């Protein structure tokens, strides 16, 4: 609504026959501001307002004072809003920093867990390879034992077959 910062403006205004204030040059005022300026701020202001309406003249000093008061109130409201925005901005920044810290911690925890899982998988892979090598050793050992047993069994069979054949030949020769 009003000017910004601490700069001052010169405002020229005039009142028409219904005491409506028209801004000729300077700051535009809303109808609600104009209505508040028309309302008396004290009992003495009410009598001056009645005196003014009776005489039809506008007291420039009082009007300037009211405009200055309204502009000061507007500036104070803007300053208050700016302070609230700064405070809200600080709160948002703290929240952003906090959430970034939480996110960073969560990422670090996930990385640590992932690294731990990777190391565990490597340990399991080594254990599996070791068991596989051990099973291959056992397999080779048992194949070797099986081959020996088969060879001994074949020899035993051959000897037994020869003894049987010899015994059968002896029995056959005795009864002939």
From TrEMBL:
<dbReference type="InterPro" id="IPR052632">
    <property type="entry name" value="MICOS_subunit_Mic19"/>
</dbReference>
<feature type="region of interest" description="Disordered">
    <location>
        <begin position="29"/>
        <end position="61"/>
    </location>
</feature>
<dbReference type="GO" id="GO:0007007">
    <property type="term" value="P:inner mitochondrial membrane organization"/>
</dbReference>
<keyword id="KW-0449">Lipoprotein</keyword>
<dbReference type="Pfam" id="PF05300">
    <property type="entry name" value="MIC19_MIC25"/>
</dbReference>
<dbReference type="GO" id="GO:0061617">
    <property type="term" value="C:MICOS complex"/>
</dbReference>
<keyword id="KW-1015">Disulfide bond</keyword>
<dbReference type="InterPro" id="IPR007964">
    <property type="entry name" value="MIC19/MIC25"/>
</dbReference>
<protein>
    <submittedName>
        <fullName>MIC19 protein</fullName>
    </submittedName>
</protein>
<keyword id="KW-0496">Mitochondrion</keyword>
<keyword id="KW-0472">Membrane</keyword>
<feature type="compositionally biased region" description="Polar residues">
    <location>
        <begin position="41"/>
        <end position="53"/>
    </location>
</feature>
<keyword id="KW-0999">Mitochondrion inner membrane</keyword>
<keyword id="KW-0519">Myristate</keyword>
């Amino acid at each position: 609504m009003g000017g910004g910062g601490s700069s001052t403006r010169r405002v020229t205004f005039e009142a028409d026959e219904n005491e409506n204030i028209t801004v000729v040059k300077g700051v535009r005022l809303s109808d609600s501001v104009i209505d508040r300026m028309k309302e008396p701020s004290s009992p003495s202001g009410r009598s001056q307002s009645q005196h003014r309406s009776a005489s039809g003249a506008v007291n420039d000093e009082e009007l300037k004072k009211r405009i200055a008061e309204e502009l000061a109130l507007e500036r104070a409201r803007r300053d208050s809003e700016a302070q609230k925005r700064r405070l809200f901005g600080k709160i948002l920044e703290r929240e952003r920093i906090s959430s970034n810290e939480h996110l960073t911690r969560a990422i670090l925890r996930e990385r640590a867990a992932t690294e731990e899982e990777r190391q565990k998988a490597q340990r399991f892979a080594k254990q599996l390879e070791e068991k596989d090598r051990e099973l291959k050793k056992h397999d080779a050992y048992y194949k070797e034992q099986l081959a020996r047993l088969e060879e001994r069994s074949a020899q035993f069979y051959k000897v037994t077959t020869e003894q049987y054949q010899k015994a059968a030949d002896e029995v056959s020769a005795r009864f002939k």
